[in-house]
Amino acid sequence: MNLKEFYNSINVNPEEVFHRFANNEAMLAKFLKKFLEDQTYLELTQAVENKDWEATFRAAHTLKGLSGNFGFQELFDLSSKIVERYRAGDYEVIPDWFEKLAICYHITVDNLVMYLE
Question: What does the pLDDT look like over 60-75, one tens digit per residue?
Fold first, then answer.
């Protein structure tokens, strides 16, 4: 799988992301590897499990930023929903949004691993 195929596999236009990284695919690939090492998703998982809504907000907000930088639009949107629900004080729906986010995250990571192999 090449980089364009990876982005197509998660329904993202790769050209928009390439532009953000000065059309330097090697640089983008380098940072995508770092995404796999990032602990934010694990922090978010633990925070949701513990119903620690402040930590959930921080992790979701961080994941939102990471997702936006890499053009992971669906992951960005789902992270945004969690941030919005926290800000609205609507904590009881956060686990439902997290379940959707978890599925999306794993699809993204699985495809990213295939690309990087």
Answer: 999 999 999 999 999 9
